[in-house]
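Our preliminary data section would be incomplete without showing what the modeling component actually yields. Below, a chain of 245 amino acids is followed by its predicted structure, encoded as tokens that our downstream tools consume directly.
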Amino acid sequence: MTEIFVNIPQGHTLICGWNSHALKVLRELEASGQPVVVVARRRPEELKNSAVPVVEGDISDDETLKRAGVETATAAIILAENVGSLPADTVDARSILTALAVESLHPEIYSVLEIINPENERHAHNANVDNVVYCNRLIANYIALCASQRGISDFANDLFSHSDDRSSLNTMDLDPKWQGRSIGEIFAAVRAQGDLPLGVMRRDDNDSRQVWRHEINPAAGTKAELPMKVIYISCEKPGQNNGER
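Predicted structure:
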């Protein structure tokens, strides 16, 4: 272990584990203005000369996670770290173990867990994670979309990336002043700011995990019941938007 002292920012996002797409995840988080701390068994080669804080150690170990500031982090991304070509279920089990450790140390953290085998989703939710992602499914959907809708790939790349100065997909929490107002009024206010509203997200009170459910293009007359988020396309960098309207 080569680390001597790691300066941990407050309100950061943890990346737990390292794999082939971890660097892209890191760059997108940095572009969106979020401070990031990486937790990995050893410092990744891609970050050898980087100023990004890296905490070395077992990513599922409580002490390692504490050194990475898990208790003051706002979010954690647990990546599927395949060390030595392990079977998919073994990789998922290690990732879920890490998620359990993260959630036990900081139950309020927003956690995103990458798994390889979708059949392990129920085990992932037992770890109380907020989001479960299957990269293989996302890639398959994207490839099929590009094949069926010619020319859409550049649009999709632009929309899902924060690492350029063009449009990007974002969400924002609605200010309490919008309670009981219509979606039509809210969307008009978003458009007046130069953004394009696409939908809303509501917290599902019937789900013990307090997950957010989305609705694309809701009826204009629908009344807002907070908490609610607006999904929108913005030409601004996320750091330039205060997240409230």
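The CA atoms of residues 96 and 124 lie 6 Å apart. The domain at 13-133 is CATH 3.40.50.720 (Rossmann fold). Preliminary results of this kind motivate Aim 1 of the renewal.
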